[in-house]
């Protein structure tokens, strides 16, 4: 009997006997089953640190706190990076921007093709290459902060993280709109940020592919 068949047989036995269960996988992943919806879920990697706190922050607010938004200033970094976003809360006595604070969604024009895009500097993919958000035009407005203004920093030094999300789209009656789904990218602080500190996140290796010489 093959190992694959044995695993499938064991899973079938678990599903038929129990309404809900979780099996840990090597490396931190897991296989779980919920009888309420009948779905078998396989997570190959552990959840990122702070996922629960970030989810709670997103649930309690669908947009960035206006006071926080007003305290993030877009200004010239004085480097090759150009403009950047800074936590500049001087009126409150240099209060830190707390860890796991929701910073809003990546804003821009939805694109399904790269053909008409001339500047890919502010391009964010939402599903690996089928759907994009072009934040170039939004980035030109520096009067109000948006995650499009965040500069790159390697993961070990970055103080913000992004989370790709999928929302169900419903019509006026509350029913699923042709199985439609809305994809968005939410941003959060990954640690406390001091007054005057620049907000950054890791753009990822895909962004720098073909432009390695430009990496800051």
From TrEMBL:
Segment forming the signal sequence: 1-20
Keywords carried by this UniProt record: Signal
Source domain of life: Eukaryota
Pfam families attached to this UniProt entry: SET (PF00856)
All copies of domain SET, residue ranges: 70-204
Gene3D superfamilies with a match to the protein in the record: SET domain (2.170.270.10)
Name of the protein in its database record: SET domain-containing protein
């Amino acid at each position: 009997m093959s190992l694959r068949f044995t695993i499938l047989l064991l899973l079938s036995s678990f599903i038929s006997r129990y309404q809900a269960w979780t099996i840990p996988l090597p490396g931190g992943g897991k296989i779980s089953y919920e009888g309420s919806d009948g779905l078998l879920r396989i997570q190959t990697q552990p959840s990122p640190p702070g996922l629960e706190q970030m989810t709670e922050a997103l649930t309690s607010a669908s947009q960035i706190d206006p006071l926080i938004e007003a305290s993030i200033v877009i200004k010239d970094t004085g480097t090759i990076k150009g403009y950047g976003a800074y936590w500049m809360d001087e009126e409150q006595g240099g209060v830190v921007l707390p860890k796991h604070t929701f910073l809003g969604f990546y804003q821009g024009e939805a694109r399904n093709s790269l053909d008409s895009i001339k500047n890919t500097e502010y391009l964010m993919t939402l599903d690996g290459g089928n759907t994009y958000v072009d934040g170039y035009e939004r980035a030109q407005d520096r009067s109000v902060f948006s995650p499009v203004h965040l500069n790159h920093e390697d993961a070990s030094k970055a103080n913000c993280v992004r989370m790709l999300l999928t929302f169900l789209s419903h019509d006026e009656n509350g029913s699923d709109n042709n199985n439609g789904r809305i994809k968005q990218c939410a941003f959060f602080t990954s640690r406390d940020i001091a007054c005057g500190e620049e907000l950054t996140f890791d753009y990822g290796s895909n962004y720098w592919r073909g432009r390695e010489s430009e990496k800051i």
